[in-house]
Amino acid sequence: xxxxxxxxxxxxxxxxxFASMKKLNHLSTNLILLLRHLVTLxxxxxxxxxxxxxxxSFEFYLITLINVIILLIAMYL
Length: 77
Description:
The chain is an all-alpha fold. 77% of the residues lie in helices and 0% in strands.
């Protein structure tokens, strides 16, 4: 049942994020994207309190970097 709660929470978070982005449309696109990611950072960092960081390979970092670049381009467009 945790998945249902997380799905609802994710949907609510997206709704708030998109509504906020519409209210902040007078700001530059880059600043809006930066604010959106900075707001989520504390919640992601909170996860480090409960889980240890696993050992990962170089390929993981490479794929993550490619994913970040693609997501940033997609969000900017």
